[in-house]
Amino acid sequence: MTEAATTTTATLNRFEKFKAEKDGLAVKAEIEKFASIGWEAMDETDRDHRLKWVGVFFRPVTPGKFMMRMRMPNGILTAAQMRVLAEVVQRYGDDGSADITTRQNIQLRGIRIEDLPEIFNKFHTVGLTSVQSGMDNVRNITGDPVAGLDADELFDTRELVQQIQDMLTNKGEGNPEFTNLPRKFNIAITGGRDNSVHAEINDLAFVPAFKEGIGEQRLGIGQEFSRSPIFGFNILVGGFFSAKRCEAAIPLDAWVSPADVVAVCRAVLEVFRDYGSRANRLKSRLMWLIDEWGLEKFRSEVEQRLGKPFLPAASKDEIDWEKRDHIGVYKQKQPELNYVGLHIPVGRMTAQDMFEIARLADVYGSGEIRLTLEQNVMIPNIPDSRLVLFLAEPLLEKFSIDPKPLTRSLVSCTGAQFCNFALIETKNRAQAVIKALEADLELTRPVRIHWTGCPNSCGQPQVADIGLMGTKARKNGKAVEGVDIYMGGKVGKEAHLGTCIQKGIPCEDLQPILQDLLIQHFGAKPRQEALVIH
Ligand code: SRM
Ligand code: SF4
Q1: Are both 183 and 291 inside the same structural domain?
Q2: Of 93, 257, 324, 361, which one has the fewest beta carbons inside 10 Å?
Q3: What does the pLDDT read at residue 1?
Q4: pTM above 0.90, yes or no
Q5: Boundary (domain end) residue, out of 336, 371, 403
Q6: Above 50 in pLDDT, residue 2?
Q7: 365-369 contact pairs (CB < 8 A, 24+)
Q8: Residues in contact with ligand 1 (CB, 6 Å cut-off)
Q9: How far is CA 112 from the centre of its chain?
Q10: Are 43 and 114 contained in the same domain?
Q11: pLDDT category, 284, cuts 50, 70, 90?
């Protein structure tokens, strides 16, 4: 018997109990009521937890000013949608801002509960949704930021990502079939060669792989059939980070054609929903179920739900490039068109920035905007003839296409400014530290530094060249903000997780330590002028 099968009401954790009393999605029908009574009069469980089923997060750090987490399938939105998001945060003056997240998504800040009905109406008119984006739901589904633009891609992930989201959320309206998972769940699909989605840190990931000898493929109208390898995906399962344990995803030894990907997502989620542990929340992510059952049993349960056996994995996948960051100007596969990646420092945008990004996408591109997992923005479909004018736009002084090497790859989670789990301030500190390092050091290549405010690892320090995880440190007998340092994370081909190399460094002592690491491991050189000053 599995732990899940033997879980009784008595052993259910407190989250399971409140979910059993009332499904999270039920709050969708109560938004008008919440708006009229105000946040202080709301039932606490509805306010602090169930609202997350519609993407609304109570922030204990700023009570009454909520955060809204959207869904951005494949990290793509239109200029019209960006404008609506900008209007929402603009209303809140200095409280209103937006962050691009490490899952190619947008979070809005400063939201007042009384405005929710109007905000949801606005979302509806432009096809935006924030449903099922928090708590025990599937998070934003990531895909290649250059899907459909990249001449070297093997598969355009956009349609599939949208189909999975539509299945999971009933086209953005909410789907009770998948609103009571035992825990959060992450899905990623990549059709390119550089593993742009960090497949290895998702509960379920699809990576491109050609399968030999499974049938025939017509080469073209009027041509013979050939036995050429067929495109599909190898499946990885069980990747996750948590305060208790971090694991890279493992191969399921299964290959699927693109046509079966949505059904596989459904089957895996049904198995997780029905058998994942609901006793101990620290042991509820998919990998714990795989550990308990063994991979063979897990695979066979998924096959039963799928209604057919998997083909074994293709002997190799097609991830054979280093990861690209897409900052700068790049040719698209469409002749005479370019995509331009703008660096958004730690992903933070004001309403004015968002209006400007929307304007640039409309004026120079096709009105499309894309987001990356490194918390940056891309504007595609800019004709060669418009490029010079585009590059002269004032917004590019703030959001550079050629930032300095450390700035370029900096990633940071939300941290203490808004997140009550945080042990340290992250976004502002991350930028200040990088600025000081760049003043002292010459670097010839980007070094990926990721900050995360606590062991939940939202800022993915384990995938970084240098990862910094917030902790409490001690200095002169006093508790101070500190970090654990991670190194060795590798992204792109042969991706693997980094490990902790130093613990409990007070943040105030971090600068020289990072400087040494950059000199010893990443070829940085002290600047002459910095040497003179010191
Ligand atoms: Fe996260 C919880 C922010 C990506 C692991 N995460 C939270 C909360 C909701 C906690 C809270 O209620 O305050 C944070 C909201 C703070 C705020 O106000 O912004 C939060 N997580 C974020 C974001 C915004 C970080 C960022 O600055 O980009 C990312 C939003 C992604 C999205 O669009 O959905 C974010 N979180 C991640 C990732 C990275 C990823 O998915 O690649 C991870 C690690 C990967 C994973 O989940 O396996 C991650 N977040 C967690 C965890 C630990 C999960 C666990 O199994 O224990 C928590 C805490 C929890 O769920 O209990 C958490
Ligand atoms: Fe908050 Fe910790 Fe996640 Fe940072 S890593 S956003 S501090 S939960």
Answers
A1: yes
A2: 93
A3: 36
A4: yes
A5: 403
A6: no
A7: 367/78, 367/79, 367/80, 368/76, 368/77, 368/78, 368/79, 369/76, 369/77, 369/78, 369/79, 369/82
A8: 57, 59, 67, 69, 99, 101-103, 105, 107, 134, 139-140, 184, 186, 201, 240-243, 285, 413-414, 418-421, 456-458, 460
A9: 25
A10: yes
A11: very high
Q: Please identify every residue annotated as catalytic.
A: 69, 183-184, 453, 458-459
Decide if 522 is inside a domain. yes
Give the least confident one: 1-10, 54-63, 290-299: 1-10
How far, in Å, is the centroid of ligand 2 from the Cα of 467? 14
pLDDT at 191: 98
- Rounded-to-integer distance, Cα 496 and Cα 489, Å: 6
Tell how far the Cα of 4 is from the centroid of ligand 1, in angstroms.
25
Number of the ligand 2 atom closest to the C-alpha atom of 419:
1
Q: How many percent of the chain have pLDDT more than 70?
A: 95
Ligand nearest to C-alpha 98: 1
Report the distance separating Cα 190 and Cα 172, nearest Å: 22
- 279 and 389 within one domain: no
pLDDT of 388 reads 98
Q: CATH number of the domain that 370 lies in? A: 3.30.70.3340
**Ligand with the closest atom to the CA of 75:** 1
Ligand 2 center–CA 498 separation, angstroms: 18
- CATH assignment of the domain containing 282: 3.30.413.10
Domain count, the chain: 4
As a whole number of angstroms, the distance between CA 390 and CA 401 comes to 11
